[in-house]
Structures are given as structure tokens and as C-alpha cells.
Automatic annotation (TrEMBL):
Organism: Dendroctonus ponderosae (Mountain pine beetle)
Domain spans labelled Root UVB sensitive protein C-terminal: 374-557
The protein, known as: DUF647 domain-containing protein
Domain of life: Eukaryota
UniProt similarity note: Belongs to the RUS1 family.
Pfam hit, one: UVB_sens_prot
Location in the cell: Membrane
Membrane recorded as keyword: yes
């Protein structure tokens, strides 16, 4: 019995390579027969790798990444240990365990401490690398120098100003709420309570931070690689969760006996906020930096927020003294939270991304197939949802299948014979992707070759949608997209339906489109692909990058063909 290599699959650059071979027209994995203990070790190693390394490591990072991370980890460890001693000293100094102290004065000290740091941050951002005399020319020049990126407005995206206005408003609301929260937390850990001790308060503080770190690790492992894909949704989710955490901490004085448990829960919530908010902020900054000035825009964004926080901090000192009534205080806090969430909503809705994530691409494809035109980025971004779990995230109702990018092909090969794979090798020999249809799970796997570009990924996704619609038509399955077609002028969906009429199905059960049909079908897709990508270019879409969720698995189906040719 002879065995012929068909496809090899590898996860990442250093992952295990699995060869799938033709064994009497059956597709079998060649090198999965590892000891059980080895497979368990490999599983735990993969989990550990996912927690601490970026997806696609080492190909997805610079050459100095590992060395930098080693030294950065060591300094972080030293800093954490020294900070634990500092925490006890600070808590003792603001009145933990002192019956003469009160939470209001401690909160004001805390706010003034933060405010002084904000002033230093603003002045340093203004002064560093600038001519001092030049910056004394006037208040306007000073503010422009501090707040706006160099070359504004030509150096930033068109949505920059509107986004920053609403982002500034939400930051102001958050700062004032944070001041009331600080007072509640300090009171909850024992400021003004003679029975409390600085040591126990410090331990509570450290446990709170430790729980947050643990939550940060788990969340980064669970969702870290997907935050870019739904940037707006995760940004708004972070703000909602942040307000929820502050609301819980504002109630801390009522549950002082379980302050440690409450602070651990809120610390985990803040950890998720930090990861999702920080990652999405980086994506937004990258989008706004149209002149490769990402570092400057990030710095100026930080300065803008610092100025707003500074104003809010000093304003909150007045408010903390003014609101003596608990009822009036809660009315103010709830009002600020509503305003905070509303301005955040307006901020993320102001963003106009011209690159594709799953929902934006789905909206464009839906428009293209039903009416024959591509929507521009402004219209698509208006229709994009900013709430997790909502919006047009998938295309199953449109094409009958879920589209999966860059995932393992082990299970999907069960629907194919070796002869089918050999035909598919010829069909996709000049492409950077191969499509495999799993009729049982209603999934189409876009299997990517190593070295694919963003345009290749988008092309593979478009081809998969066409194949999904064609397969559904071939099996006489009803689709929403076909019901919404335009009857009076030709569109891609009507052209596809007319084209598929030439293929007759001789059985009643579900079947994939036969591989020998795919060569002709490829010619149809090639024409549609050309028209679709031309329309994308005209409407201003950027196909040189994307935010689609792509797995780590890459396959090679061309090497076996080369060996046969030789």
C-alpha cells in the first residue's frame, strides 16, 4: 500500500507539522501517533503559549521582542514587590486605623496627589523635545502644542476631532465619579476606623491587585487575540464594565465587613477594562495615525485626557465637600454615569474605519450581492453595532455557512476522499487559499497558505461566501439573500443563481459542490472578484490590512504537486 502526501498543516511558525496522506483513497494523518503523555504535555504547553505569547509568535513580532520581554518581566517583578511595602505606608499616612482621620480628607489627598502627577505629565509632554522660547508665544500656541498632533488636521483621520470631543466628555464624567468612588473605597478599607490597621488594609489592597492581575492574565488569554476584530464593541463594553465596577465600589461602605472580597471582584472587572480598553485604544490610535505618527497621537491623546482629568479632579474636590446629602450625591453619580455611557456611545459611533472586520465585511457583502453596489466606509460604520452580541457578525443566514479563517483542517477532511483533495489542489494551485466545505457543521474553512496578504484573506472570504451561496442553491436550500434579490436588474446573486441552474443534482440528500465543477465555478468567481475589488477601491476601502479573526494554522498543498511534477 502506497502513501502519497496530500496536505501538510502547521500551527504557527514552530508548531507541530501534520501531514495528511492518501492511503488507498482515504485521508490519514501521518504523525499523530504520539505517546499519550506527550499529547497531554503538548496541550498544556499550547495553553501556556497562548497565555503569554502573541498569536503567530515569532513571525508576528519583531526580533527584539523576546529579549525585551525577559528584562521587562524582571523589572516588573521587582516593582511589584517594592510597591507592596509602599501601599502599607501610604494607607497608614492617609488615616487607616486613625480615629481622627476621615474619608473625605483622605480622598482629597488622593485626588491632589493624582492631580499633581497630571500637571507634571502635561508639562513634560509639552516641554520634551520642544524649544522653550517658542512655546512662550501665547496661550493658543501652548494649547495647540500640548493638545493637537503636529500637522493637524492633515496628520490625522477625518473622524479624529468628533471622536476626541466625545472622548473628552466621557473622561470628565468618569473622573468625577472616580473621586466619589475613591472616598467610598478609603472609607471601606478603614480610614477613620480605630479598629482597622494599615497592615490589614495593605493586605486587602495587595490581594485586590493580585486578583486583578490574575483576571488580566485569563482575559488576555481568552479574548486577547480578538479585541482588534470588534474594536468598537470591546471599547464600549469596557466603559460599561468600568461603570459597573465603580457602582459596586461606591456601595463598599455598606459592606465594609466583606471589603476584601468586593475589592477583589471589582479589581477583576477593572483588569478586563484595562485589557480591552487599552487594546482597543491602540487600534483606534493606529486608525487615526495616517502619517505613521502613532506615538505622537497616543501621547497627545493621553495629554488631552490628563488635562480633562485634572480639571475634573479639582472640580470633584468641590463636589465632595458640597454634596452632604446621600440622596443628592447618588442622583449626581447616576446622572454622570448615564452621561458617561452616552458620550462613550457617541465617541465609538463617530469612528469611521476603512478596513474590514467581520461585521463591516458582512454588511458590504450583503449590499454587494443584493443590490450590486458596495457601500462606502461612512455608511457601513453607521450601521455597525457597538454592543457585544449584536449586529451582523456572521453570514450563515446569507450564504448558508459560517466562514472560518485559518483553523485546523483535521475534521473538515472527513467529508472528502483523497481523489477530491487532488482535484482541489489543481483548483486552488494559483491561489493563497483553499476552501473546504463541511456540510455537517455548515462551515466553510478558508485554509491559508503561509505568507498570505490581507488581500488574500479578503479574497478567500469573498470566494467562500460565493461558494456557500452556490452550494446552498445546488442543494435547493432557501437563503435570505436570495429572497431579497433585485428582480428588475442583474446583481451578483441573480447572476450566481442563473449560473448554478446549469448544474443538475441527481440526489436528494445534502452534497458538497463536486470538485470537478469547481474549476468552471472559479472562472465565475474570478469575474465577480474583479468587479468586487474594483468597487472596494472606488469606495475607499483599504484592503492592505484587516481586522478579521484569523487562526494560526497554515497549510501547504502545493509541495506535493511539485514533487509529482518532478
Amino acid at each position: 500500500m502506497s502513501e502519497v502526501d496530500l496536505i501538510t498543516e502547521q500551527r504557527g511558525a514552530n508548531g507541530e507539522v501534520i501531514s495528511f496522506v492518501d492511503h488507498d483513497d482515504q485521508i490519514l494523518p501521518l504523525n499523530l501517533e504520539k505517546p499519550k503523555s506527550f499529547r497531554k504535555f503538548r496541550k498544556f504547553y499550547n495553553i501556556f503559549e497562548e497565555v503569554i505569547r502573541p498569536r503567530g509568535y515569532p513571525d508576528s513580532v519583531s526580533e527584539d521582542y523576546l529579549k525585551y520581554q525577559i528584562w521587562n518581566t524582571l523589572q516588573s517583578f521587582c516593582n511589584t514587590v517594592s510597591a507592596s511595602f509602599k501601599t502599607r505606608t501610604v494607607l497608614k499616612s492617609v488615616g487607616v486605623g486613625d480615629s481622627n482621620a476621615n474619608a473625605l480628607s483622605a480622598a482629597i489627598i488622593w485626588i491632589l496627589r493624582d492631580g499633581t502627577g497630571m500637571i507634571g505629565r502635561i508639562l513634560f509632554a509639552w516641554w520634551k523635545g520642544r524649544n522653550f522660547i517658542y512655546n512662550l508665544l501665547g496661550v493658543y500656541s501652548f494649547l495647540k502644542e500640548v493638545i493637537l498632533p503636529n500637522g493637524y488636521p492633515d496628520s490625522v483621520s477625518k473622524d479624529y476631532l468628533e471622536y476626541q470631543i466625545w472622548d473628552t466628555c466621557q473622561a470628565f464624567c468618569s473622573t468625577i465619579i472616580g473621586a466619589f468612588k475613591t472616598r467610598a473605597v478609603l472609607k471601606g478599607v478603614g480610614v477613620g476606623d480605630s479598629t482597622a490597621s494599615a497592615l490589614s488594609a495593605a493586605i486587602t489592597w495587595i490581594l485586590r491587585d493580585g486578583t486583578g492581575m490574575f483576571g488580566r492574565i485569563l482575559f488576555a488569554w481568552w479574548k486577547g487575540s480578538g479585541l482588534d476584530c470588534d474594536c468598537k464593541k470591546w471599547r464600549y463594553f469596557a466603559d460599561i464594565l468600568n461603570d459597573a465596577a465603580m457602582l459596586v465600589e461606591l456601595c463598599l461602605p455598606f459592606y465594609a465587613s466583606i471589603s476584601m472580597q468586593v475589592l477583589c471582584v471589582t479589581s477583576t472587572m477593572y483588569a478586563i477594562v484595562g485589557i480591552s480598553g487599552g487594546a482597543t485604544r491602540a487600534s483606534i490610535t493606529h486608525h487615526q495615525a495616517i502619517r505613521d505618527n502613532m506615538a505622537e497621537i497616543s501621547a497627545k491623546d493621553g495629554t488631552q485626557e490628563t488635562i480633562v482629568n485634572l480639571i475634573g479632579s479639582f472640580g470633584s474636590i468641590f463636589l465632595l465637600n458640597y454634596f452632604s446629602s446621600s440622596r443628592a450625591e447618588w442622583i449626581l453619580i447616576i446622572s454622570l454615569m448615564v452621561l458617561h455611557l452616552y458620550t462613550n456611545f457617541l465617541a465609538v459611533k463617530a469612528l469611521i474605519f476603512n478596513t474590514f472586520n467581520r461585521e463591516r465585511l458582512a454588511l458590504v457583502l450583503k449590499s454587494y450581492f443584493t443590490i450590486g453596489s458596495v457601500l462606502n466606509p461612512a455608511k457601513v460604520n453607521v450601521n455597525e453595532s457597538v454592543l457585544l452580541g449584536f449586529g451582523l457578525n456572521g453570514l450563515k443566514r446569507m450564504c448558508g455557512f459560517d466562514i472560518v479563517l485559518g483553523e485546523s483542517i483535521k475534521k473538515s477532511l472527513n467529508d472528502y476522499a483523497a481523489a477530491d483533495i487532488k482535484l482541489l489542489q489543481s483548483v486552488y494551485k494559483d491561489k493563497k487559499y483553499m476552501l473546504l466545505v463541511n456540510g455537517t457543521k455548515k462551515k466553510i474553512y478558508v485554509c491559508l497558505e503561509k505568507g498570505e496578504t490581507a488581500a488574500d484573506v479578503i479574497a478567500g472570504y469573498f470566494h467562500a461566501v460565493c461558494l456557500g451561496i452556490a452550494t446552498s442553491i445546488y442543494n435547493s436550500l432557501d437563503l435570505d439573500i436570495y429572497a431579497r434579490r433585485q428582480l428588475h436588474h442583474p446583481t451578483p446573486i441573480t447572476r450566481l443563481y442563473t449560473y448554478m441552474k446549469s448544474y443538475e443534482k441527481s440526489h436528494n440528500h445534502f452534497r458538497n459542490l463536486p470538485p470537478n465543477y469547481l474549476m468552471d465555478f472559479n472562472e465565475f468567481v474570478k469575474q465577480e472578484h474583479s468587479m468586487f475589488f474594483t468597487a472596494l477601491d472606488i469606495q475607499g476601502w483599504n484592503i492592505d490590512s484587516h481586522s478579521l479573526a484569523v487562526g494560526e494554522f497554515r497549510i501547504d498543498w502545493k509541495s506535493s504537486q511539485s514533487k509529482k511534477t518532478i
